[in-house]
Amino acid sequence: MTAKKIISYGLAPFFIIAGISWCSLAIIFNWDLGIIYMYMAAIRFIFLLIVEFSFPLKRKWKM
Q: DSSP string covering 8-61, please?
């Protein structure tokens, strides 16, 4: 399996599982959900930006 296929089909489930896990931990440990969501969104944005620069799906989409 190529890296592009893993990224195409693996990122969405990864982000869903990570989001559910972080929200569950925030509820269990009584963390502030707003701050946790802000960190999750920032990390997701940076990660997706890095992935898009590193592995563009089409050459014309390369940033």
A: HHHHHHHHHHHHHHHHHHHHHTT--HHHHHHHHHHHHHHHHHHHHHHS-SSGGG
Residue 15's CB is within 10 A of a number of other CB atoms, namely 15
Maximum distance among all alpha carbons in the chain?
Answer: 45
Distance CA 22, CA 3 (A): 26
In a 10 Å sphere around its CB, with 0-12 CB exposed, 13-18 middle and 19+ buried, how is residue 49 labelled?
A: exposed
Per the listing, tokens 């969501």 go with: 37
pTM: 0.74
Segment 17-32, tens digit of pLDDT: 999 999 999 999 999 9
